Amino acid sequence: MARIVKAELLMVDLAPQVVRTDAIQSFVSQETPILTLTDDEGATGTGYAYTIGTGGPAVISLLRETLLPRLMGREAEEIEGIWRDLLFTTHATAVGAITSLALATIDTTLWDLRCRRAGLPLWRMAGGAKSSVPLYSTEGGWLHIPTDELVADALAMQAAGFSGSKIKIGKPSLAQDRARLAAVREAVGDDYAILVDANQSFALSEAIRRADMLAEFDIGWFEEPMPADDVGAHRELAARSSVPIAVGESMYSLSQFKDYLSLGACHIIQADVARIGGITPWLKAAHLAEAFNVSICPHFLMELHVSLTCAVPNAPMLEYIPQLDDITTSRLDVREGRAHAPQAPGLGIDWDWDAIAARAVDGLSATLEGKGD
Question: Where is the Mandelate racemase/muconate lactonizing enzyme C-terminal domain (predicted)?
């Protein structure tokens, strides 16, 4: 056992590799807090979180001014206790994105440290359900992409062995969305999964209309059809739709998933390890879903989620969106359309510290040392 004696925090700002648009926003930047913790035996762990354009400085401030000072001197293996204590420390700002992202930055770092000390990869330490998981691609399905390019990308992913492609919907008319989906379905045939994502853009009445249309093309799931805080509307839609309803990337606590699952308001959950507050609550969400016989297909963060989807038995697919290529030397191990979990101890992410230092945002870093209170 060892106590935390040092924390090194910084933030890098990463531009997306491709233009990313959906029905409500453009993904313009990836503000990425990165934290390294050192214990009094010299072991280290590194973790991270992210935003899609704003809020990164607020996450850094919460970590630097409030959370990390309270982490100094804590026993690194007491991850559950640390998570709960830090959540209570921020009770005036929880539940919410900034607090959850800050907690995730610490929690993923502690899990990396735990796994490195144990000499185990995260996927085994957290459960070890399987060593690989099928992939589906989102990167070629953004809302601005012309139909012929959607088709070309889906065919390329199918040829590479991927299980499916996700296509953004939310065009001004139902007919426009239908035409795009019809073209892709005709090209890929019946055995390739087509998933759609509306990014919370519809009211219930329009979501019902679109769900009826989606059923024509055997769509695998209808993701974020409406604002995530409207559980009642999702419950009504889930009861009426023959297309499975997927939600979760815009939820920030385990309790929110409990509400959806207990009310039958979704068929698939998509907990994001950064947005729910880290690996500790993500695993709880996954096992909660398992108790309801519901799958978890996490949002984004493939470099970290590959280990988590392999840790649990009810995670059938992983979303392929490269995120960390500019600041890592490791790459997702993809073979015949499946992502294989890293075998190295820890999260399995090899950081390029020179590239990180070159991209670090001025004024958004801190080093803390000491044994705490």
Answer: 148-244
Q: Are residues 312 and 178 part of one domain?
A: yes
- Residue 234 annotated among the catalytic residues of the structure: no
DSSP type of residue 275: T
Point out which residues pair with 223 in neighbouring strands: 197, 246
CA-angle at 347, arms to 196 and 95, nearest 5°: 60
The H or E element containing residue 71 is: helix 68-71
Please indicate, yes or no, if residue 235 is contained in any of the structural domains. Answer: yes
Q: Which of 166, 234, 267, 299 is catalytic?
A: 299
- Read off the CATH number of the domain in which 254 is found: 3.20.20.120
CA neighbor of 338 nearest in space, from 161, 166, 130, 192: 161
Q: Active-site residue 168, yes or no?
A: yes
Q: Which residue range forms the structural domain that includes residue 304?
A: 123-340
**Domain match, 68 and 138 both:** no
pLDDT at 372 (0 to 100): 44
Q: Is the dihedral angle over the CA atoms 142, 143, 149, 151 positive or is it negative?
A: positive
pTM over 0.90: yes
In a domain, 272, yes or no: yes
Q: How distant, in Å, are the alpha carbons of 65, 67, 68, 99, 184 from that of 89?
A: 12, 8, 11, 10, 49
46 and 188 together in one domain: no
Tokens standing for residue 165? 């492609």
The span from the CA of 244 to the CA of 177, in Å, is 18
Q: What is the mean pLDDT of each run of 10 residues along the chain (373 residues)?
A: 94 87 82 98 97 92 98 98 97 92 98 98 98 96 96 98 98 97 98 97 98 98 97 98 98 97 98 98 98 97 98 98 95 98 98 97 95 53
Query: And the tokens for 252?
Result: 């920030």
